[in-house]
C-alpha cells in the first residue's frame, strides 16, 4: 500500500494540538513531508511543507496509516508532573457546588440564605469577600459554593476544559416552573456529567405548585427520588430561610455518594475561577485548590504565567498560611492575569515555574500564528465530500420564549438536502457570555438576537472571539437575511455569457506566435480576458482562450463593435476567412437554496394523499 515507507515505522498513536504544520506531522509519523503532501493532494488539498492543517484533517490522514491521533491542549504539551504524595495523604474533601437557575427564580437569595446558615459566619471578619467562591460550615461538614454569574462562567470554564463543579443546585421557582434558563442550566450540567439537586424555591407563595415543577423536570430526565428516580428535590423559601438546612444536608448526602477524595500531602494543583489586578496588591487570582496543599512561598504556574505565592486570603479576606483541597482562596504573586479555568500548579522550584511558563507562552504564540494560516477541514470536505450535508449553525435569543420558538421554527424550515440549518440553542433573555462561548466553541455559530441586545461583557467577548451577532425585530427580515447567508455557503453555479462576436476577414502567420486572425467586431465587445468559440459553417469547432488582442500593432484590453482587431487563440492555428469568433466570459452565479426539506415533505404528503384517494 505504501511502497515508500514500511507501515511498521508509522507509530500506532501520535499526539497533536489543534493545528499542526505538515513538517511537524511528517516528523511525528516518521514519514517524509513529500509523502504527507502527496497524500493530502490525493484528498484534494494543496498544501506546502510549512502550512498548517487542522486536527480533523490530520486525523483523517493518519487513519490512512492505521495511526490514531490524540488531541492534546497547550497544557498537555507542557505537562508539569504531579507530586504523588503519600498513601496516607488521601482524605475526603468538601464538595464544590454551583448554584444555577432562571433569572428571578431566587438564585441570589438562595445563595444569601446559605451564607447566613454558615455556623462559622459569627466569627471575627465574618463578611464573605467577593472572590467568586465561598465555604459554608455546617454541623455535618463543609461545602464550597462557586458564586459565579450562573451558567456563563460555568460554560466558559468548561470551554477551557476546567471541570471544577461536583454538584449543581438548580433553583426553580414553585410558582413559575421550568423556564428557558432552567433548560439551559440542565443541559450544561448534563453535558458536564454533574449530578443535579433541585431546590424548589418560593414554596411560601400562595400559588406555589411544587408538584408541577417535579412533573416538568421529570419530563427532562430529572425524576424525583420519591417517584423512584435518583434526583433529590428540596422545597425551600430563600426569603423566609425555610428548608436551607435540608438543602445543605442533601448536598452532603450527594457528596457521600460521590465519595469525593483528594491527596492533601503533595504540591498543590487547582483551577483559576477569576483574576483581576488590584491597586497596591498587583495580580489577584481567585483559585480553588483541587489537590494538595498550597503554602505561602510556593513557586507556581497559572495558565501561561508563573509566580511565587506572596499571600493567601480565605473567602472572608483573612490572611492564611495554607489552602487545602476544595478551599477557595485569593492568591497574590503572579506575574500576569491568568484566564478563568486555567490550571494552577505548584512546581519544585521557581526556575521550573518560569521555564514552564516561558514554554507555554512560546507555544501559545506559535499556535496563534498557525491558527491564522491553517488549512481547515472545510477546504477538504468541499472537494472530497461534495455530497456531504453542510451545516449553518445558529443560537437564537429573543425577548419572549414564544418569539424564540417561532423564529426557530421559521429558520429550521430553510434546511435543504444540501445545507441544514441547526439551532444549537434558543431561549428568551439577553445575549450573554454563555451564548458567545457556546457559539465560539461550535465552529463560530452566529447568534441571532430578536428584540434583545448583548450584555456589555458578551459584546466584548464576541469581539474577542470573533463571533457574529445579528440583531432583528421582524421575523421575516431575519429569515430573509439568514437565507441569503446560507446561499452564500453554497458552491456557486457558473454560466457562459457572450460579450461579442467578430468575423475573420484575413489571416496572418507571425513568426514565433503563429496564426493571427484579422477580424472585424460585428457585435458587442471582445475582451482580452475572454474565451472564444470558433464557429465554422454554424458549428463550434474549437473553444479556447484569447492569447493576444491587438489594435494595429498595440496590445488592447478590449475592442468594441465597428472596429478591426487582430486575435490570436491559444493552441489553435486553423483559422480561416469567414470563421465567426464568439467571445464569452464565465461568470459565477449565486445559487438559491432550492427546494427545502419542508417543501419536499409537504409534496410527498400531498402525493401520498392523492394516491390514497385514487386507490379508494
What does this structure look like?
The chain has 616 residues and is an alpha+beta fold. It has 5 domains: 7-77, no CATH class; 87-262, P-loop containing nucleotide triphosphate hydrolases (Rossmann fold, 3-Layer(aba) Sandwich); 269-372, Elongation Factor Tu (Ef-tu), domain 3; 389-489, Rossmann fold, CATH 3.40.50.10050; 493-589, Translation factors (Elongation Factor Tu (Ef-tu), domain 3, Beta Barrel), CATH 2.40.30.10. 30% of the residues lie in helices and 33% in strands. A 6-stranded mixed beta sheet has the order 7-8-6-9-10-11, with helices on both faces. It has a 6-stranded antiparallel beta barrel with strand order 13-14-20-17-16-21. The chain has a 6-stranded antiparallel barrel with strand order 27-28-33-30-29-34. The longest helix has 23 residues, at 350-372. The chain is elongated. The protein starts with 12 loop residues before the first strand and ends with a helix.
Low-confidence stretches: 1-7, 120-129, 372-387
Strand content: 25-35%
Q: What is the rounded Rg? A: 33 Å
Overall geometry:
elongated
How many domains, as an integer?
A: 5
- Sheet with most strands: strand arrangement: 7-8-6-9-10-11
Question: In short, what is this structure?
Answer:
With 616 residues, the chain is an alpha+beta fold.
Explain the layout of strands and helices.
Layout: E1 13-16, E2 19-21, H1 22-28, H2 33-42, E3 52-54, H3 55-63, E4 68-71, H4 74-77, E5 90-92, E6 96-101, H5 107-116, E7 133-138, E8 141-146, H6 151-159, E9 167-173, H7 180-191, E10 196-201, H8 210-219, E11 233-235, H9 244-258, E12 261-263, E13 269-278, E14 282-291, E15 294-295, E16 299-302, E17 305-313, E18 319-320, E19 322-323, E20 328-334, E21 343-346, H10 350-372, E22 374-375, H11 377-384, E23 390-398, H12 401-412, E24 419-428, H13 433-441, E25 446-450, H14 456-465, E26 469-472, H15 475-489, E27 493-510, E28 514-527, E29 531-536, E30 539-551, E31 554-555, E32 558-560, E33 564-569, E34 580-589, H16 597-615
Parallel strand pairs: 1-4, 3-22, 6-8, 6-9, 9-10, 10-11, 23-24, 23-25, 25-26
Antiparallel strand pairs: 2-3, 5-12, 7-8, 13-14, 13-21, 14-20, 15-19, 16-17, 16-21, 17-18, 17-20, 27-28, 27-34, 28-32, 28-33, 29-30, 29-34, 30-31, 30-33
Helix pairs in contact: 1-2, 6-13, 12-15, 13-14
Amino acid at each position: 500500500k505504501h511502497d515508500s515507507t514500511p507501515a511498521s515505522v508509522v507509530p500506532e498513536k501520535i499526539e497533536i494540538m489543534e493545528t499542526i504544520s505538515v513538517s511537524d506531522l511528517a516528523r511525528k509519523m516518521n514519514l517524509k513531508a513529500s509523502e504527507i503532501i502527496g497524500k493530502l493532494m490525493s484528498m484534494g488539498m494543496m498544501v506546502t511543507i510549512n502550512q498548517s492543517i487542522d486536527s480533523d484533517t490530520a486525523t483523517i490522514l493518519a487513519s490512512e496509516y492505521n495511526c490514531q491521533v490524540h488531541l492534546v491542549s497547550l497544557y498537555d504539551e507542557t505537562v508539569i508532573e504531579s507530586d504523588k504524595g503519600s498513601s496516607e495523604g488521601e482524605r475526603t474533601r468538601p464538595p464544590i457546588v454551583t448554584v444555577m437557575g432562571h433569572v428571578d427564580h431566587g438564585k441570589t437569595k438562595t445563595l444569601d440564605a446559605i451564607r447566613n446558615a454558615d455556623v462559622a459566619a459569627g466569627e471575627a471578619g465574618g463578611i464573605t469577600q467577593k472572590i467568586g467562591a465561598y465555604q459554608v460550615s455546617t454541623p455535618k461538614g463543609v461545602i464550597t459554593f462557586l458564586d459565579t454569574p450562573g451558567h456563563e462562567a460555568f460554560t466558559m470554564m468548561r470551554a477551557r476544559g476546567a471541570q471544577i463543579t461536583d454538584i449543581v443546585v438548580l433553583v426553580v421557582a414553585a410558582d413559575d416552573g421550568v423556564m428557558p434558563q432552567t433548560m439551559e442550566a440542565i443541559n450544561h450540567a448534563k453535558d458536564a456529567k454533574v449530578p443535579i439537586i433541585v431546590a424548589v424555591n418560593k414554596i411560601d407563595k400562595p400559588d406555589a405548585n411544587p408538584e408541577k415543577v417535579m412533573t416538568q423536570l421529570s419530563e427532562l430526565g430529572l425524576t424525583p427520588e420519591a417517584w423512584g428516580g435518583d434526583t433529590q428535590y428540596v422545597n425551600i423559601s430563600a426569603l423566609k430561610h425555610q428548608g436551607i438546612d435540608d438543602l445543605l444536608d442533601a448536598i452532603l448526602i450527594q457528596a457521600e455518594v460521590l465519595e469525593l477524595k483528594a491527596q492533601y500531602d503533595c504540591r498543590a494543583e487547582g483551577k483559576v475561577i477569576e483574576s483581576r489586578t488590584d491597586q497596591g496588591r498587583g495580580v489577584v487570582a481567585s483559585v480553588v485548590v483541587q489537590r494538595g496543599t498550597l503554602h505561602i512561598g510556593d513557586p507556581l504556574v497559572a495558565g501561561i504565567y508563573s509566580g511565587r505565592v506572596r499571600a493567601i486570603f480565605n473567602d472572608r479576606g483573612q490572611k492564611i498560611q495554607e489552602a487545602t483541597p476544595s478551599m477557595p482562596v485569593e492568591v497574590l504573586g503572579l506575574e500576569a492575569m491568568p484566564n478563568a479555568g486555567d490550571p494552577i500548579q505548584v512546581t519544585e522550584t521557581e526556575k521550573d515555574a518560569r521555564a514552564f511558563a516561558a514554554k507555554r507562552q512560546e507555544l501559545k504564540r506559535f499556535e496563534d500564528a498557525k491558527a491564522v494560516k491553517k488549512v481547515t477541514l472545510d477546504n477538504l470536505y468541499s472537494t472530497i465530500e461534495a455530497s456531504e450535508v453542510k451545516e449553518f449553525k445558529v443560537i437564537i435569543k429573543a425577548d419572549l420564549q414564544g418569539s424564540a420558538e417561532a423564529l426557530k421554527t421559521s429558520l429550521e424550515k430553510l434546511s435543504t438536502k444540501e445545507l441544514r440549518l441547526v439551532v444549537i440553542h434558543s431561549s428568551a433573555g439577553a445575549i450573554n457570555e454563555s451564548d458567545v462561548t457556546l457559539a465560539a466553541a461550535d465552529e463560530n455559530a452566529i447568534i441571532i438576537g430578536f428584540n434583545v441586545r448583548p450584555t456589555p461583557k458578551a459584546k466584548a467577548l464576541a469581539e474577542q472571539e470573533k463571533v457574529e451577532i445579528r440583531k432583528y425585530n421582524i421575523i421575516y427580515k431575519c429569515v430573509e437575511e439568514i437565507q441569503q447567508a446560507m446561499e452564500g455557503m453554497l458552491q456557486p453555479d457558473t454560466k457562459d455569457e457572450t460579450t461579442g462576436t467578430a468575423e475573420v476577414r484575413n489571416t496572418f502567420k507571425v513568426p514565433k506566435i503563429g496564426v493571427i486572425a484579422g477580424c472585424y467586431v460585428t457585435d458587442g465587445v471582445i475582451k482580452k480576458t475572454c474565451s472564444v468559440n470558433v464557429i465554422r459553417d454554424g458549428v463550434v469547432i474549437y473553444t479556447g482562450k484569447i492569447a493576444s488582442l491587438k489594435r494595429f500593432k498595440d496590445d488592447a484590453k478590449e475592442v468594441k463593435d465597428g472596429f478591426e482587431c487582430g486575435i490570436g487563440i491559444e493552441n489553435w492555428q486553423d483559422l480561416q476567412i469567414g470563421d465567426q469568433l464568439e467571445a464569452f466570459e464565465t461568470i459565477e452565479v449565486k445559487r438559491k437554496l432550492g427546494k427545502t426539506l419542508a417543501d419536499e415533505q409537504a409534496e410527498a404528503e400531498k402525493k401520498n394523499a392523492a394516491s390514497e384517494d385514487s386507490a379508494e
